[in-house]
Amino acid sequence: MVSSEEKDFTEWFNEYTAADANKLTKNSKLIQAVNSDDLDANFVEQHIRDSAPKSPVTKGFCAKCQDLFNNWPTLGGSSTREHDSKPDLDQEGWDHGVARPCSTFELEGSTRAGCKFCTFLLQQLKDSKLLDTFRKIETRLYHLNDSAVSFLSVQNWGTNPLQLLWLNLPGKICTSCNSGIAAAVKFQSSFLPASADCYDELPDVLDTVGNWLSTCSEGHELCTSKDDGILPSRLVSIAGDSPRLILTSAYQTRPRYSTLSHSWGSHDVIKLTSKDLDAFMKVIPVDRLPPTFKDAIKITRSLGLDHCWIDSLCIIQDSEEDWLKESALMSSVYGGSTINIAASSAVDSSQGCFMKPPDFSGGLRARIIDGGRERVQDFRSSEVYDLSTSKTHLGSRAWALQEKMLPPRTIHFGDRGAFWECRTTIASEYLPDGFPRHLVSPLVRGRGKFESLWRQVVMLYSAANLTFEKDKLPALSGVARLGFNETGDQYLAGLWRRQILEQLCWRRWKPKTNWKRLPWRAPSWSWASIDGKVTWRYVQEGIMEDKYAHVLDASTTLYGHDPFGQVSSGVIRLACSAVATGFLVPSMPASNSEGETGAIVVLRASNEEQQFPIQMDCLDDIDSENKKPIYIVPLLGGKTGSGMAPHGEVIIDELVIQGVALRGTGVRKGEFSRIGTFDFYKDRVTGAATERGFNEYYDLFLQVLEEHGTATAEAACAEIISNSEHPKDRYVITIV
């Protein structure tokens, strides 16, 4: 180490040593400073070998971990707490203790020797992407002759039979699970009865999957399928030596089958075409099947099923008619399956289902002694569900969302092993009896009213990726059909009639700076017309109850067979109470996480030009010459549900007016297309815009409407009506 580096390292060391661990996060300057260091591979490997356990690993644990389990730290009332204990409201809980000193080199050495807990601790650092950071800090300390190590923190989760654990930075002790580095690396541990199985020897994963399926099929009422949905036209029969296509119309009794959810990727996957149909009815060449398909067939056979459904083999890929017909059946194809097999980590069909790396740990159980009393505790990542499902490669694909929501049960295979998910429970091959606390998404559990789940569905779906842009609505049609079956509501290209006013106010979530308008695939008023994650604000009792317009009628024209799929046009007739008009000034990038300042529209108030921030749907919707007028149409307003009480005084409610920004189509008077949205606040307490004076726009916009709103609406509308139920909403415009 040269002298300049030595000086820099010494300065860093002095600051690091003095720093408060509870304020030292992964984004702190002191932690970020080590990320530019280079790790010497030979140095790391030698330290791993030198740190390997001196005594053999027995019963799955090294001597240090076994000593920890035999002398588990007693925190508050932890030693007398049972797995089914209720929280004690008379006690605070959150007691904290420190145990088990270690280094990353020691953890990796013990992992290689077979210690399950060291493997799990190392995996937590890998999952949080902090292993190299810890190791670089350790290396700096080594060169500075400091022998500081990491300690394992344990903290009671209040007075629940649950604890939180984390590895501290070398030489530092963070005392709260939500502070410092703990917020990024903490994991969970639940108390279990002393009689609980510790899985000393985990069974073969396919045997575990078979047990999950049997338990679910025979005992989970929520997961029972009605078996009355329409079958796909074709299935792959795997009962014989070679797979072949069969027509389901020939079956007297409904066949049990699996479905495969996978990412096509760029790999040239085997496809059913018109010319191959007759041949595939006789035999599908096994040597042409990619690893993912072969693995799916292997898993299906192990479960005692004779049929599977794979999209590329069961839909004629060069027939638009067959594709439209079969894609319209997705709700019943997946909903009627016995099990869905998700190749979660594979980027294409060449990678297969079984991708778990060596020395991986997805969790474990251990028998511990706390204050002389024995119990079992499990140890699992706080993000085990997301890491195994939504944060996988498949989870980023739009088609996969409905393939996850529709089946009664899914088994995810990926780089974290096998992960079971049904409407009743979740489990992993590492914790096969399931998780004691429900981590299951309500989207899969099928609980709650569909109307309240739709925004969550759209937020997840709109953030996902599609290979073919035209699939934006078809890839969600199965979920939409599910919603229609529950509610009977009219579906309108991603929106629902009963909630249409609030859903028309959808807006981009954390927009990027390069969003462009795509070729037409949905009406401009639908979020499906653009790419990127969207959201909107809920309307509920006491929240957003002021209405400035109402929808007279709405309709879409279908492109194919599916009433919930692709559309060729769509129109909304809106009766407004007031409209403002102005022009855009040169656009500016979104200045905060919510993107309020995508553009500025200039409106007139008190004979002066006033600037109002709006969010554009697409940047290329901005007229470069700013000659075309923009129409600002308020739809909803009122209390947001947030408020503030300055100096302990009476709470002041946050207010907002929201609506859409439109531009005339030029085709006929009163016809517009949507180009953006707006939220004008008063007494704002949420968002970064609070510091930018955004509070002023609410009252100022009301002034614009009072001075010019009805005259502008009359000049812009297609017709003027009278309506006793909505006497102010007289001016009718059309949005396409």
TrEMBL record:
Residues 257-403 form the Heterokaryon incompatibility domain. InterPro entries: HET (IPR010730). Pfam families: HET. PANTHER family: DOMAIN PROTEIN, PUTATIVE-RELATED, HETEROKARYON INCOMPATIBILITY DOMAIN-CONTAINING PROTEIN. This is HET-domain-containing protein.
